[in-house]
Amino acid sequence: MAAKTLPQFLVRNARDFPHEVAIREKEYGIWQQWTWAQYLQEVRDFALGLVALGFNAGDKLAILSDNRPQVYWAMVAAQAVRGTPVPLYQDSISRELQYVIDHSDAVMVLAEDQEQVDKVLEIKEHLPKVRKVIYDDPKGMRHYTDPLLTSFVAVQEAGRQLARQRPGLFEELVAAGQPEDVALMAYTSGTTGAPKGAMLSHANLVAAIAGLQEIERYQRGDETLAYLPPAWVGDTFWSLAAALIVGFTVNCPERPETVQENIREIAPHFLVAPPRIWENLVSQVQVRMEDATLAKRWIYNRLLPVGFEVARRRMEKRPLSLPLRLLHALGEFFVFGPLRDHLGFRRIRSAYTGGAPLGPEVFLFFRAIGVNLKQVYGQTEISGVSCIHRDDDVALGTVGKPFPNVEVQLTEEGEIIARGPTVFLGYYKNPEATANTVRDGWLYSGDAGFFDANGHLVVIDRAKDVTSLADGTKFAPQFIENKLKFSPYIKEAVAVGQGRPYVAAMINIDMDNVGKWAERQHVAYTTYTDLAQKPQVYELIAREVERVNRDLPETTQIRRFVLLHKELDADDEEITRTRKVRRAFVAKKYENIIEALYADVAEVPVKSVITYQDGRQATIETKLAIWNVETAAVSV
C-alpha cells in the first residue's frame, strides 16, 4: 500500500532503508544519531504509550520544546494514533500557553524540561482538559510530585508493555490513518487578534512536498538543520513532512545558542531561515570586516561589488565579460569561498528565506557570495509554502512562481488568492474566520501584490498595512522597514505615516552591534536605554536612515525618527513570536511618541512597563530624542 500519511511514510523508510541516518542531535559535544529503523521504534513506543495513557483518535497533544528528536517523534506518534500534535512557541509566556492549550482542547502536554513544565504547572488550574504533562529532560525535577507529571521514557515503557500485550496494534493504527486526518494544528501568529488554530491534513502536507519536489533536487543523504521553532509551519514543512517523504537527514542543534556553530559542522545541503536570521548573518559579516585588518578590508571592499554585479547579471540573464569573470574568480578565491565556509554554506545547494519579505540588499548579498538564496512565499493556511524561485529563474524583489499544483491569482483589489490541494481544512472551532479566509475554494491571503512581466509574484505588504500619506501618496511600511533592517545597527523598525504629512520611523538599535561600535568609539554606556539615547548613536543611525532615503522616492522618504528606549518584545505583545509587528497595538501603545514625531518638539517623555519572561514587570521612565533627517534627491 502506498504511503499517504506521515506515519505511513515513516514505516516505508524504516522498511526500505532502515540503516540510513534519519535524525541527529548534538548532546554533550557528541552527535547522537538514530536510523530510520530506530526512529520508527521510538515513535512506536511513544505512540502506544499515549494509547496506554488514554490518548484517543481525535485527541490533541500540545508540544512545548526546542528542536529535539523527541519533538518529531512525538508529533508522528500522535499522528500514528490519529491524534493531532499542537506545537507551541517555546518562548511563550504562561498566558499565551494557556490560551492555545485550552483552545485546542489538548488532553496532554509534552514539555521539554523544568522551565517548560513550570510554565504549564503554573496555569494547570486553567487547563481542565489536560490529563497528563509529559517531560523529556528530568534535570531538576527529582522532587516534583504533581500527579499530572510523567516522563517521556515512562510513557515509552508503557508503550512497550502495551506492545507485548497487543502485538500488531501500532501497525493497525498506522494503517487506519487517512489522508484527510488532521496532521497538524498550527496556531497563527495573531498580529490582529487571538491566534487561530489552522488545521492541516496529511493530504495537505503531502501535496505541498510533492509540489516542492517538482522544483527542488532533494534526495536521501541530504542534510539540513532543524533549528526554527517547531510551532512555525516552516519547520514542520521541512523538518517533519519533507524529511519523512524524501528521507533526508535532520540535525537538531545542541542549544539555540550553538546554531551557527552547528551549521558550520554540518554544512547542510539546504537551509531555511526567516529574514531576521539572514539579516543577522549579514550584520555579523559587516561587523567582523570592520574589525579586520586594513588589507582584508581593502580586498573585501574591492571584490564584494564584483559579486553583486555578477549576481545581478546572472539573475537578469545577461552575459559576463571576460574581465568580470576574472575578477569574480579572484573574489571566489579570496572572499566568497572563505565567507561561505565560515558561515557553514560550503555544501549548500539551496537556501530559502520566508515568513516575511527580505530586503533586496540582504538577498543580493548572499547571492553575491555564491549562496543560492531563494525567496519562498506562503501561509500556514496553505501548508507553509506555495511560491518559490526556480534555480534558473531568480528575480530580485519577487517570491518566484507558484508550485505546479497551486494556482495563484489576484483579486480586483490586488489581494493574493490561491487554491489547490495544499489549502488547509479550516480554523479549529472558528467557522466564521474559515468562511472569511476560504471562499469558493480560494484562500484569501490578506497580502497585496502583483505579477511582474515574467510571471513572478511580487508581494508588497499586508493589504491592510498599505497606507497613504495626507496628500494621498501610497506607501508600504514593511518595504521601508526592511530597507532599514539591512543596517547592522538596526534590529527592528516601525514606519508610520498614515494620514500624516510625511513618513517617520521608530527604531530599535541592535544592542550587540551598536555596543561593539560604541566600544570602538570609546562611548561609555550602561543599559540599552542609555546606549540608544547617546547623541553619537543617533548620528550613527541618522547616517543609516539617510542611506535608505537615497533609495526611496522623495515623497516617502523618512523625515524624522526616534530610537526607542526598549526592544519591541513578544512578551510585551508588541511583536508576535515570529517577530511580526502588531501594528495596531504598537500604534496605540506608542501613541505619544508617534504624535511627537509630527510635532515641533525635540524630545518626548516616556513611561513604559516591560514584562520579563518570568512574568515580573518593571517601569522605565526617560526622555527620547526626536531627530530630523536630511532627505535625498532621487535622480530619475
Uncertain parts: none
Major sheet strand order: 4-3-5-6-7
Gyration radius over CA: 25 Å
> What share of the residues lie within helices?
25-40%
Q: How would a textbook summarize the main sheet?
A: 5 strands, parallel
End-to-end distance, in Å?
A: 63 Å
User: Helix/strand-derived class?
Assistant: alpha/beta
* Relative strand content: 15-25%
Query: How large is the count of helical segments?
Result: 21
- DSSP strand tally: 29
Q: Predict the CATH topology of the domain at 6-266.
A: Rossmann fold
**Oligomeric composition of the shown chains:** single chain
What top-tier CATH class of the domain at 6-266 fits best?
Alpha Beta
Could you characterize the architecture of this molecule?
- Among the domains are: 6-266, Rossmann fold (3-Layer(aba) Sandwich); 467-628, ANL, C-terminal domain (GMP Synthetase, Chain A, domain 3, 2-Layer Sandwich).
- The chain is 38% helix and 23% strand.
- The protein is built from 21 helices and 29 strands.
- Helix 2 crosses helix 3 (69-80) and helix 2 packs across helix 6.
Describe how the helices and strands are arranged.
Blueprint: H1 6-16, E1 21-27, E2 30-35, H2 36-52, E3 60-64, H3 69-80, E4 84-88, H4 94-103, E5 106-111, H5 114-122, E6 132-135, E7 149-151, H6 152-165, H7 169-176, E8 182-187, E9 197-201, H8 202-213, E10 223-225, H9 233-246, E11 249-252, H10 259-266, E12 270-273, H11 275-290, H12 294-315, H13 322-343, E13 350-353, H14 360-368, E14 373-377, E15 387-388, E16 401-402, E17 407-410, E18 415-419, E19 426-427, H15 431-437, E20 438-439, E21 442-451, E22 457-462, E23 467-468, E24 474-475, H16 477-484, E25 490-496, E26 503-509, H17 511-520, H18 528-532, H19 535-549, E27 558-563, H20 583-589, H21 591-597, E28 603-611, E29 617-628
Parallel strand pairs: 1-11, 3-4, 3-5, 5-6, 6-7, 10-11, 12-13, 13-14, 26-27
Antiparallel strand pairs: 1-2, 8-9, 9-19, 14-15, 15-16, 17-18, 18-21, 20-21, 21-22, 23-24, 25-26, 27-29, 28-29
Helix pairs in contact: 1-2, 1-9, 2-3, 2-6, 8-9, 12-13, 12-14
